[in-house]
Amino acid sequence: MEIIEEPVSSDSNSAEVLDSLPLGHIAFENNDEMDSSSSPNPWPTSRPSWMNLNKLKPRNKIGDALAMVAEYILNDIQPFPGDNHFLQFQDNDWEVDNRFSVTQRRGDTKNYMVHDFLTNFRVKVSKKSLADESFDLGQWYTRKRL
After folding, report:
1. Cα distance between residue 100 and residue 72, in whole Å
2. What is the domain partition of the chain in residue ranges?
3. Given its phi and psi angles, is residue 70 left (phi above 0), alpha (psi -120 to 50 degrees) or beta?
């Protein structure tokens, strides 16, 4: 490779043009060669109904995003401390997938009610907290339960 120095013009309107600029690297792997037990499943085994697309029945409204995401987070990060005590009293077919319900009561626009169907525990959480990106819902719920 030979480096050739080009004369620099004193014209202020001239611009240097790059012929190429490497930006990144992408690797493609054959899924047949990968051992499925070695790579974690990127999707949870159970997803809330609002995450599943249904082509036959489109939704006619979006729903309450704060409540839906709060339910998803609480269902996804379980178990919580002390859950084993309550699980021993449940039937074998009891599903923990829809354990939580988060609803806003009529007339109360500043708070939501979290209902845990496993423990029958209910607690209020402020709408302001649920809307805060830095709010740790799982840690908050654990502290409320203890």
Report:
1. 8
2. 49-145
3. alpha
Residue 79, C-beta contacts closer than 8 angstroms, at least 6 positions apart: 96
Q: Are strands 121-126 and 100-103 parallel, antiparallel or unpaired?
A: unpaired
Contact in structure between 146 and 81 (CB atoms under 8 Å): yes
Integer Rg of the chain from CA: 27
**Residue 84 predicted with pLDDT over 90:** no
Residue 32 has pLDDT above 60, yes or no: no
Task: Tell me the average pLDDT of the chain.
Answer: 77
- Measure Cα distances from 53 to 1, 49, 73, 95, 101 in Å: 56, 8, 19, 22, 21
122, 116 Cβ separation under 8 angstroms:
yes
Q: Which residues pair with 115 in a beta bridge?
A: 101, 122
Query: Whose CA is closest to 46, among 86, 83, 94, 98?
Result: 98
